[in-house]
Amino acid sequence: MLAPGRWSQLRGVAGAVASRADALLDERPLRALVSTHVGAHDLSELAVPLTVTTTCLDCGQARHHDRGPLADLLVASCSLPGLFPPVRLADGHAHVDGGVLCGVPLEAALAAAGPDDVVYVLDCALAPVTGTAGTCAALPHDGETLSCGLGGSSSRWVPPVERRRGALDVVLRAFTVARASANTLGIVPLLGDPRVRVLPHVADAWAVGLLREVPAGPRDFRSTAGLVDAGRGATAAWLISPDRVAG
User: Fold this and answer.
1) What is the number of alpha carbons within 13 Å of residue 71 lying toward its C-beta?
2) pTM above 0.90, yes or no
3) Higher model confidence: residue 193 or residue 184?
């Protein structure tokens, strides 16, 4: 997640106002990061097929791309409106983060899947919206806390509230809340599809003791090592759990 320093925020605001730019932050460091670590030039060149979702600002619809310039598509998919400038793709339209309209493109994945395929859903949010109440620690329920494929616990998950201050932080938190609400409306009706499998959340790893320190927010990188270890442990436990075949 995005976590620019105060100086970067101030410089971005000042520059945007002075030049009447369409974003507060420069996209070039992000583009350089993608170019450095991803060798392919076109999305279709990847050994493992990948679909990238963006939001078309001109037509107001989510677009799912399985080919096209890789750097442009990845930068567009990361471009939160107002923070990074829109990316003009090959269709001639301006595109931004797909999460504006389609944060978890489950419907598109199911549309592309065959009748015997399996669609895995990995929700990385600290307040996850996927899963079923009573079977996933992140979702409210009465009685014992169950975790997605990881067993039971007496612990109840309460998502942390980020305490960072500043205009940019308010914008990012508001975007996160709006996206979570939209995701819930779009995802919940599809979770009953027998092809869907919900993987363990951060909340599930915490509920069964795999994660000791919970991040203070989506841009808190102090717990990165613990999150990686918890993810590895949760994946190993889920793979041998009989519950994983039931979603």
Assistant:
1) 15
2) no
3) 193
